[in-house]
Amino acid sequence: MAVSAAAETLRISGMGAAGDGLAVLADGTPCFVPGALPGETVRAEPGPRRGEGRVARLTAVLEPSPERVTPACPHVAQGCGGCVLQHASPAAQAAWKRARLVEALARAGFRDAPVATTITTPPARRRRADFALRRGPAGITAGLHRAGSAEVLDITACLVLDPRLVALLQPLRAMLRGLGALRREGSAVVNLLDTGPDLLLRTDGPLAAADRALLARFAQDQGVPRIAWAQGEGPAEPAAQLGPVSIALGGVPVAPPPGAFLQASPEGEAAIVAAVLASLPERLPGRGRIADLHAGLGTLTFPLARRGRVAAFEGDAAAVAALSAAAGRAGLPVAATRRDLARQPLGLAELAGFAAVVLDPPHAGAAAQAALLARSEVPRVVYVSCNPAALARDARAFAAAGWRVAAATPIDQFVHSAQLEAVVAYLREAPRQRGSRRER
């Protein structure tokens, strides 16, 4: 193999948050090498800057790590951005993800937190996909973006997605060829529900009557009970519906709105629920009220309702309506409230009546709410994280206020990616002294 004159021989010392190998260039500049593993010696060509360092293109692995494996997916070599760690063994991925949680808690001040072994979900179980769509001279492209690029890679196989989602791609391409509403680009969000695939189609053009008829035929042929459509980022509307849609969350059937957020896999959802419930006593003190913040469709709400009365807060109106209706049908002690917790977090007086709070924020975390919880008199908080960086920032408030980490569980439900879920249980080190002035 010819070696570029610009390439350098690098020793990989660690792995960054994006799953890149970490090295130092000859001039002392930090370097990120996608596809490299700790302990390896590689040849790489330095490229564009990223922050204070540079990203390099891996050209050769001179001394491979014993944890290096051959990626099984054909799209890895084509630069698919869906997976960044297929070249690492499952054991190496699990160890690295656990280390990320250990490091995030340590940065927050919890240096000896009890962190469990990573729970890794099985491959081919992802039940939610957001496919990018492009119309070009060669026809319709439907798949995932190339790593670090807006270019869309046509997907014909995937080791991560449920095979039923992958099987939908080819007929989707065929249907989109005749769909006038897709002019140049769009997206297809598919949730695999108990009733079958649920499709939210976003296009860059309006939906004509002929398009609606085409979508209805596609739904009938492919067993898709509902297709919703939206132009751009506008609101979704029904385009074709052949029957009801439903998914069981915590054993409770829920009718989700189009494109609703779901945990990535059934096994990932089960692991998160189990870790949350394990963080709570079977019998909660006092009146047993639990707050579920950022409740979504009720993934955690319904299991929690079997431990006590749940006040569920969620900012999305459609999700609140679905959660509330499902709880009512099931006869569960749940009160669902629409509230934008990023702009209006629960205050100290509102938090005072809860025996436990479960906080499951979006990727950006919940800095304001975490700070209030850390100052509150709630005895127990369970934080469900999908972003170690946000977790570390939010955890600092609990460390500064004297809380302790009772348990921390890393959950890898985005296998082969750099993403990590975690469930962290915080307990007060000691109850407040009687007669102390309540903070307002």
UniProtKB/TrEMBL annotation:
Its EC number is 2.1.1.190. PROSITE patterns: SAM_MT_RNA_M5U. One of its GO terms (biological process) is rRNA base methylation. The active site is at C386 (nucleophile). Keywords: 4Fe-4S, Iron, Iron-sulfur, Metal-binding, Methyltransferase, S-adenosyl-L-methionine, Transferase. S-adenosyl-L-methionine binds at Q263, E314, D360. Signal peptide: none annotated. InterPro entries: NA-bd_OB-fold, SAM-dependent_MTases_sf, U5_MeTrfase_fam. It is an enzyme of class 2 (transferase). One of its GO terms (molecular function) is 4 iron, 4 sulfur cluster binding. It comes from the Bacteria. Belongs to the class I-like SAM-binding methyltransferase superfamily. RNA M5U methyltransferase family. This is 23S rRNA (Uracil1939-C5)-methyltransferase. It comes from Neoroseomonas alkaliterrae.
